[in-house]
Amino acid sequence: MINYDRLGYEIKRDFTNFSVKISQKLKRPQQKFVHQMVHVILAGNKLHLSKIARSLKENITLKKTIGRMSRNLNAFDGKQAVMQDYLSLV
């Protein structure tokens, strides 16, 4: 019999480990941003910030979540570091 709780936990753990490995050269807030963005894109197949913000289900207003995410996305300059870490991982 398949233990779905355990399977879900293992998938989440593997995803988190992958996210940490590809963003290890970034600062902690940028690491969290990369983790949230990649997680929601993979889990929900969503690309619009409003849909991503809804998927996060945070306790703050949707407008504030979208504002924070758009500021982080606009200020994100770690593309090269993430790509280098990803390529070295692969």
Task: Describe this structure in a few short sentences.
By secondary structure, the protein is mostly helical. Helices cover 77% and strands 0% of the residues.
Question: What is the share of helical residues?
Answer: over 70%
Q: Tell me which oligomeric state these chains represent.
A: single chain
State the end-to-end CA separation: 33 Å
Please tally the helical runs, counting DSSP H or I stretches of 4 or more residues. Answer: 5
In angstroms, what is the radius of gyration?
A: 14 Å
- Percentage beta strand: under 5%
Coarse structural class: mainly alpha
What does this protein structure show overall?
The chain is mainly α and 90 residues long. The chain is built from 5 helices and no strands. It has helices at residues 4-22, 28-44, 49-56, 62-75, 79-89. The longest helix is centred in the N-terminal third of the chain and has 19 residues, at 4-22. The radius of gyration is 14 Å and the shape is flat.
Main traits of this protein?
flat; mainly alpha; 77% helix; single chain; 5 helices
Reconstruct the topology from this structure.
Blueprint: H1 4-22, H2 28-44, H3 49-56, H4 62-75, H5 79-89
